[in-house]
C-alpha cells in the first residue's frame, strides 16, 4: 500500500498580515432582475473582473441541499474519502492542488460538469448510495449554468456583440469542458500560534476558463487582488453568487474584461464550504479576440490558441503563475 505523507504545516504558504486585511465594500452587486444589470455587468468586468449577483433565480434549496451533501462527504473517515482520490485531475484531493507542488489548507472534490460523467463515476466519488448526492450536484449545476449563461448573454449585449450567445453557447455545447469543485477549508486551530499571520487555503491564481461561479457558506476567507495590487477580503454571502472573469474571457474581449487574481485564506475557527462552477469551452475551440470587440485598427493582444493548448500548458504551471504570459504577442 502506498501511503502519501501529509505536508507539514511549515510547508504551507503563510501570508504576513499584522493588520487585518481590509474588507472591501466596493464589490459591484448586480441585481439580475433590474434593467440596469447589463451596463453594470460590463462595468464590473472591466473594473474588477468580479461581481456579486442577487435575484439570480437559483433556488436557495439547491445550494443548501448540495452543501449538506458536501458536508456529509467531507465528514466521512479519511480512508473513505481517499477512495475517491487522488485528484488527477478529477476526484478527491487533500492539501495538494494541481500536479506541480501547490499545497493549501483544503480538501476538495473536483469533477467534470458533464452529467453523464457524474453518473458513471458516482460509485467511487459519491459512495455506496450515490443518488442523492449525484442529483444535488446535477440540479445545482443545471440551475447555475442557466443563470451564468444569462449573465454571459447580457455581457454580449452590453458589448454589442452578435449573436448574443457567442459566449454562452460555449458552455451550452455538449462538448463544453466545464468543471465543478466542492471545497472544504477546515478550521486550523494552530493558526493562533502563527501570531498574526494567515495560512493559505487556496493560493493566489486566475481561473483559466471563461467564467467562474462561486457560492460559499457564511465563512470568510475569499480575497481578490485589486488593480493596485492590494488584497481585499470579500464578505461572504450564502444567498448570492460571486462571479469572476476567467483568462479565456479576457482573451476573447482582448483584455477589456479582466481575469481577476483571487485566493482563499484559512479560518482559525470556522469551516468554509464552497462550490464552484467553471464554465469552459469545448477543447477544440479557438480562443481569440472577437473582431466585434476591437476598435478600428486595434490589434489582438494574444496569439491564437485552442482551449486544449491552453489547458495543456496550464497543467505545467504552478497556481500563482501568469498562464497568459506565454500567449501574449
Ligand atoms: C484553478 C481554477 C480551478 O480550480 C481549476 C484548477 C486546476 C486544478 O486544481 O486541477 C489547476 C489550476 C486551476 C490552474 C493551474 C493548474 C490547474 C491546478 C494547477 C496548478 C480546477 C482549473 O481549471 O485551473
Please give a quick description of this structure.
With 329 residues, this protein is α+β, with helices and mostly antiparallel strands. The chain has helices at 37-47, 60-74, 78-82, 115-120, 122-126, 131-158, 168-172, 247-252, 307-314; strands spanning 14-15, 29-31, 50-54, 91-97, 102-112, 179-185, 198-205, 211-216, 222-225, 231-233, 241-245, 262-265, 272-279, 286-287, 305-306.
Describe this structure in words.
This protein has 329 residues and is α+β, with helices and mostly antiparallel strands. 27% of the residues lie in helices and 23% in strands. The chain has a single domain, classed as Jelly Rolls (Sandwich), CATH 2.60.120.330. The strands form 3 sheets. An 8-stranded mixed beta sheet has the order 2-3-11-8-13-6-5-4. A 5-stranded antiparallel beta sheet has the order 1-7-12-9-10, with no helix packed on it. β9 and β10 form a beta hairpin. The longest helix has 28 residues, at 131-158. Gibberellin A4 binds at residues 89, 97-98, 100, 102, 110, 179, 181, 205, 207-208, 278, 314-315, 317-319.
SSE sequence, one letter per element: EEHEHHEEHHHHEEEEEEHEEEEH
CATH topology: Jelly Rolls
Output the radius of gyration.
Answer: 19 Å
Count of individual helical segments: 9
Strand-residue proportion: 15-25%
Low-confidence stretches: none
Mean pLDDT: 91
CATH architecture: Sandwich
CATH superfamily: B-lactam Antibiotic, Isopenicillin N Synthase, Chain
Enzyme class: oxidoreductase
Keywords: Dioxygenase, Iron, Metal-binding, Oxidoreductase
Catalytic activity: gibberellin A1 + 2-oxoglutarate + O2 = gibberellin A8 + succinate + CO2
InterPro entries: DIOX_N, IPNS-like_FE2OG_OXY, IPNS-like_sf, Iron_ascorbate_oxido_reductase, Oxoglu/Fe-dep_dioxygenase_dom
Amino acid at each position: 500500500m502506498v501511503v502519501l505523507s501529509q505536508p507539514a504545516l511549515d510547508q504551507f504558504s503563510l501570508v504576513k498580515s499584522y493588520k487585518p486585511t481590509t474588507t472591501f465594500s466596493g464589490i459591484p452587486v448586480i441585481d439580475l432582475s433590474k434593467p440596469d444589470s447589463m451596463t453594470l455587468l460590463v462595468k464590473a468586468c472591466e473594473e474588477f473582473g468580479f461581481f456579486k449577483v442577487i435575484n439570480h433565480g437559483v433556488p436557495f434549496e439547491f445550494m443548501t441541499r448540495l452543501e449538506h451533501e458536501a458536508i456529509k462527504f467531507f465528514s466521512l473517515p479519511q480512508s473513505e474519502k481517499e477512495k475517491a482520490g487522488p485528484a488527477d485531475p478529477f476526484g478527491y484531493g487533500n492539501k495538494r492542488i494541481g500536479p506541480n507542488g501547490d499545497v493549501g489548507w483544503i480538501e476538495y472534490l473536483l469533477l467534470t460538469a458533464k452529467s453523464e460523467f457524474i453518473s458513471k463515476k458516482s460509485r467511487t466519488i459519491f459512495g455506496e448510495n450515490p443518488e442523492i448526492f449525484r442529483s444535488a450536484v446535477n440540479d445545482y449545476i443545471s440551475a447555475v449554468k442557466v443563470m451564468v449563461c444569462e449573465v454571459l448573454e447580457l455581457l454580449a449585449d452590453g458589448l454589442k456583440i452578435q449573436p448574443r450567445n457567442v459566449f454562452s453557447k460555449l458552455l451550452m455545447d455538449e462538448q463544453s469542458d466545464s468543471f465543478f469543485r466542492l471545497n472544504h477549508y477546515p478550521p486550523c486551530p494552530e493558526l493562533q500560534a502563527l501570531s498574526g499571520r494567515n495560512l493559505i487555503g487556496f493560493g493566489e491564481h486566475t481561473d483559466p476558463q471563461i467564467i467562474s461561479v462561486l457560492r460559499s457558506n457564511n465563512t470568510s476567507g475569499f480575497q481578490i487582488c485589486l488593480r493596485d495590487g492590494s488584497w481585499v477580503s470579500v464578505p461572504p454571502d450564502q444567498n448570492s453568487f460571486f462571479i469572476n472573469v476567467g483568462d479565456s474571457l479576457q482573451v476573447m474581449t482582448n483584455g477589456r474584461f479582466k481575469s481577476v487574481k483571487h485566493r482563499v485564506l484559512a479560518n482559525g475557527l470556522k469551516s468554509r464550504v464552497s462550490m464552484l462552477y467553471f464554465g469552459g469551452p469545448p477543447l477544440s475551440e479557438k480562443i481569440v479576440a472577437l473582431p466585434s470587440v476591437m476598435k478600428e485598427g486595434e490589434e489582438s493582444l494574444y496569439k491564437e490558441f485552442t482551449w486544449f493548448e491552453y489547458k495543456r500548458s496550464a497543467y505545467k504551471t504552478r497556481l500563482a503563475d501568469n498562464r497568459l504570459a506565454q500567449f501574449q504577442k
